[in-house]
Specification:
- The chain is an alpha/beta fold and 342 residues long.
- It has a 5-stranded parallel β-sheet with strand order 1-6-5-2-4. Strands 9-8-10-11 form a 4-stranded parallel β-sheet, with helices on one face.
- Helix 9 links the parallel strand 8 and strand 9.
- Helix 6 crosses helix 11.
């Protein structure tokens, strides 16, 4: 399978040692011919250089910072996945990053599956067209100007995990944080990977369906509503046909609580404290996260799954856009806004 060559800075990978040495022996070059000793030294140093810049990353945290990426940007199989809009990507991105706008990772608007994850086959096709394969070490990069950007990165992370992708991380703070110390690494030249055939191995353990949520009403499963307080209490509904309120028994944490003032995802101690404040057990696995269309809740799911380490945490991507429309589903309303409307 052809490996993606989306990093211009990795062009050295396409040169063999013999090709390099033959250049130094070419009469047209302004270097003296190589003798045996020089050739031996070049062989040793060139091999060391290739080892240093090509060492694969076998272990990686799910959340990496800008310094980590700057240090490891030339690692073998590293795949920089930029999810900015095409306009933002053309303006600036980390050198070598391939663009797949966030909108492509969600169902089309004005359809029954709006906001939900596209089919596995659609995602396989897109990943292959980008040049991603099962061995790619993917780092997801959003703009990083707001909590919503970290939610977008979390949603793409979740989608790739559902596809069974193993080596995967989010760049904490996104492009904005990276540019503070590494602006020289940015470019505006579009990059394209060499197409591959991506074969997913779906993992649905982190996906919650409406049936799963219904079952959770009768057991000890925790439910976390990541919307605004207005939506949670029933003061606000985003669609006219939606019933106000939340899923009975759900606890509430606004998704933007999980980022700091620099729009970086918070550390484990802070995340755990926030869960406890909302009367949620941070050590209980299997919590179901929801919002309106699975965007904001992707961030609360990510911190539960990746930061707290609860590998059976689930995202209900249909969320209230489905649950609140089905009259057979129970609702809990803490504020009866309809009582005060004409």
């Amino acid at each position: 399978m052809t490996k993606p060559k989306h990093h211009a800075s990795r062009s050295v990978h396409r040169f063999s040692l013999e090709a390099l040495l033959s250049l130094t022996d070419t009469p047209d070059m302004a270097f003296p011919p190589c003798d045996a000793a020089l050739r031996k030294r070049l062989t040793r140093w060139f091999g060391l250089i290739l080892f240093l810049i090509s060492t694969p990353l076998t272990a990686m945290e799910a959340l990496v910072d800008s310094n980590w990426l700057a240090t490891n940007k030339l690692a073998k199989d590293l795949f920089l996945l930029d999810i900015q809009t095409p306009e933002q990507y053309r303006h600036a991105h980390i050198a070598g990053a391939v663009n797949a706008p966030y909108v492509l990772w969600r169902g089309r608007k004005n359809t029954d599956s709006a906001g939900m994850m596209p089919s596995i086959s659609d995602l396989e096709r897109m990943a292959g067209e980008l040049g991603m394969d099962r061995n790619s070490v993917v780092v997801i990069i959003a703009t990083g100007n707001q909590a919503s950007d970290m939610a977008a990165s979390s949603r793409v992370f979740w989608s790739l995990k559902v596809m069974g992708h193993r080596q995967l991380a989010i760049l904490n703070g996104g492009l904005a944080d990276y540019a503070k110390a590494h602006a020289s690494d940015l470019e505006d030249t579009p990059r394209h990977g060499a197409p591959t055939r991506y074969a997913a191995t779906p993992d649905k353990r982190i996906v919650a369906s409406t049936a799963d949520v219904s079952a959770a009403l009768h057991d000890a499963t925790q439910l976390l509503d990541a919307r605004t307080l207005g939506e949670y209490t029933g003061v606000i509904t985003l669609k006219a046909k939606e019933r106000p309120g939340t899923i009975p028994g759900a606890r509430h944490i606004p998704f933007d609580w999980f980022v700091d003032s620099q729009d970086r995802i918070r550390n484990k101690a802070m995340v755990s404290a926030i869960f406890q404040y909302a009367d949620l057990n941070p050590d209980r696995d299997g919590t179901i996260h929801f919002c309106h269309t699975g965007h904001r809740a992707a961030l609360s799911w990510f911190v539960d799954y990746a930061i707290l380490g609860n590998r059976n945490a689930k995202l209900y991507d249909a969320s209230m856009s489905e649950w609140a429309l089905l009259k057979s589903n129970p609702m809990e309303t803490r504020f009866d806004a309809q009582r005060y409307t004409a």
